[in-house]
Amino acid sequence: MRAMTGWKMVMAVACMAACSSAAAQAVYRCGPRSYSSQPCSRHAVNTDEAPVPVTSAEKREREHRRLLAQSLRREPGESAADFDKRRRWTRLLPADGQECARLDKRVPLEQARMTSPDEGEVEAAQAALAGAKKRSRELHC
């Protein structure tokens, strides 16, 4: 084996020094699970327990889940048909549930109008009743 010449030895030492300085960067621990290449701020704030703002979509979802859970319990004195109807309406969007309630009130009124002696009113009541029943089926009331 030949001995290294002086300039080759200098180059080898310079390369090793450059490589070791690049790999040895400072790492700072800023928290239990947080590391940084820069020193941590002295004004750091712990945000782990800060309240998270609730969006309106989350509020609606939470209210919907509450109503759904409530609909799974039968209220005292409630008939089986009323309980079934309430469960179905709870699964609907709020606007659709309100429309189902309006349709549910409208059907008996239209049936009462069908007993009128006036034929024109009976035909109008039949058409309105058919429309209310159709819309009720569409909404799955």
Polypeptide structure, described:
By secondary structure, the chain is mainly alpha-helical. It has a domain at about 80-140. It has five helices and two strands; from the N terminus they run αββαααα. The protein has helices at about 5-25, 55-70, 80-90, 95-115, 120-140, and strands at about 30, 35. The chain has a two-stranded antiparallel ribbon with strand order 1-2. The chain is rod-shaped. The model has no long low-confidence stretch (mean pLDDT about 80).
User: How would you sum up the major sheet?
Assistant: 2 strands, antiparallel
Distance between the termini: 94 Å
If you compute it from the alpha carbons, what radius of gyration comes out, rounded to the nearest whole angstrom?
38 Å
β content, as a range? under 5%
* SS-based class: mainly alpha
Helices and strands, in order, run as: HEEHHHH
The outline comes out as: rod-shaped
* Average predicted confidence as pLDDT: 78
The strand line-up of the biggest sheet is 1-2
Low-confidence stretches: none
Number of helices: 5
Report the strand count.
Answer: 2
Helix content: 55-70%
